[in-house]
Amino acid sequence: MLTASPGQLVLMLYDGALKSLAITRDAFTRSAEDPRCIATINQQLLKAQSIVAELQSGLNLDAGGEFAATMTGFTIIITAVFSKPTCARTSAP
Fold first, then answer.
1. What is the DSSP string of 39-55?
2. Which of 27, 33, 61, 93 is an S-S bond match for 40, by CB 3.0 to 4.6 Å?
3. Is the distance from CB of 93 to CB of 78 less than 8 angstroms?
């Protein structure tokens, strides 16, 4: 049985979000006419959003101090970026 520390779990979640975003970026480079690309983009963005939301909900500002406060700001920014309409077909942030 494998075990992971809380820090390792957080790192694994961030790695998962980054992997989803990399898959999304790759899908943007493929043909806009391919409906699978649009589905992949949507699925992977939703996955990354879910991961960031989970990370944000787990932050404890009382116990986490400056790190938790910084991460809260980071997750708020990332959530705002995810909330922008994705109708324009661009991979730019």
1. HHHHHHHHHHHHHHHHH
2. 27
3. no
Instruction: Give the C-alpha distances (Å, rounded to integers) separating 12 from 5, 22, 24.
Output: 11, 15, 18
Instruction: State how far the Cα of 85 lies from the Cα of 27, in Å rounded to an integer.
Output: 17
DSSP code of residue 89: -
Please tell me the predicted confidence (pLDDT) of residue 91: 55
Q: How confident is the model at residue 20 (pLDDT cuts 50, 70, 90)?
A: very high
CA distances in angstroms from 89 to 2, 20, 30, 80, listed in the order given:
41, 17, 11, 18
Tokens of residue 45, six digits: 């963005």
For all residues of the chain together, what is the average pLDDT? 82
